[in-house]
Amino acid sequence: MSRTLTQWLAHLERLHPVAIDLGLERIRTVAERLGLLSAPIARQVVTVAGTNGKGSTVAMVEAVAQAHGLSTASYTSPHLLRYNERLHLDGEEVSDDALIDAFERIEAVRADTGLTYFEMGTLAALVIIRDRAPDIAILEVGLGGQLDATNIIDADVGIVTSVALDHADFLGTDIEKIGTEKAGILRAGRPAILGSRRMVASVAAHAASLPVSRCLTLGQDFDWHRDDNGCWQWQRPDETAASALSPLPDPGLPLDNAASALTALEALGLSLDASRLAQAFSGMCLAGRMQRIGRYCLDVAHNPHAATYVADQLMLRPVTRRVALLGMLGDKDAEGVVEALWPVVDDWLAVTLSGARARGGETLAELIRARGGQVIAVAESPTAGIDWLEQHSQHDDVLVCGSFFTVAEALARLERGEGTA
């Protein structure tokens, strides 16, 4: 009897003794058996690495490509509510049946090769993409870069969005070494897009050592500017006044990443049209990234770099009182996140996350109190935190952040309603 998708995902969790085991030997062995490395999976491939901003960059590359009439496939992680969110085909979530079929094909050839949950999911996505053969496939690196499962595929253009300290248990705390690891997605003779004004030196050094065909850096080779009407203009590489595009609508996502997405697509040879770009950027909404549901703003920011961006955006939206519902994993820099959010948060509600890596809500509350913050409640889960706010804080603006797990559970609760004001 065929497994359901839920049963397959449970099976995937039991295939390898550890959840994260960086390295390409296992996945490359199975990929070769599947024929994934013998021919391109798509006409062109974009791979996106970085500490923050990967998801929004993927979403904007995808939207712009579709607006220009290209077929697309995008693979991201993790998901918030449904595993199917990880793979989009022409903007639509992949079906259960397609995933099940791909898992069955992988299982038939992997033999005794133990694959992690992420490796199995990546192979399934690549099988489906290869069968679909889209014009462009956009792959988001899961962790790091050089040793990430997605890196078995050679990218036609590589984007590194940012480099900051995160996942120290796996990547260490040497920022230059982390940069080299993330730059491992870049390929010789192909363009590299560096999407940060403060990119660590090791990334550009790695690109220069290949060498890539062009290394384009935000703030040096391309940029963006905001006008007084809430629009923005992309300053493309080698731009002249005659080639400048019209101002574009704000996508509600980081414009560093928007400019990087456009630069990558142009490096692939796509002729960008202003009207199609306006279509792509109008009304964009990415789940869990400054996502608004009534008075709630949900963002998966889980490190100081990402939390600083959230705070900067919230400063543009002053409110009478804002409460932060914060839930974080134990291996994340909670002190740094609280410090970054401090200017835009009046009161705090600390919640406990489940799982082995979880940080208790009371532990988080003690950290906030030590900083001098007002903790109005401690809840046993993000769901319980939303319930408390609906009963006791019905008129305050609420920021929900600190982890994908925090946002996922809160989002599920808010989508159910259950008396939400």
From TrEMBL:
Keyword match DNA-binding: no
Keywords: ATP-binding, Folate biosynthesis, Ligase, Magnesium, Metal-binding, Nucleotide-binding
GO molecular function (one): metal ion binding
UniProt cross-references to Gene3D superfamilies, sorted A to Z: Mur ligase, C-terminal domain, Mur-like, catalytic domain
A cellular-component GO term for this protein: cytoplasm
Family: Belongs to the folylpolyglutamate synthase family.
Protein name per its UniProtKB record: Dihydrofolate synthase/folylpolyglutamate synthase
Originating species: Kushneria indalinina DSM 14324
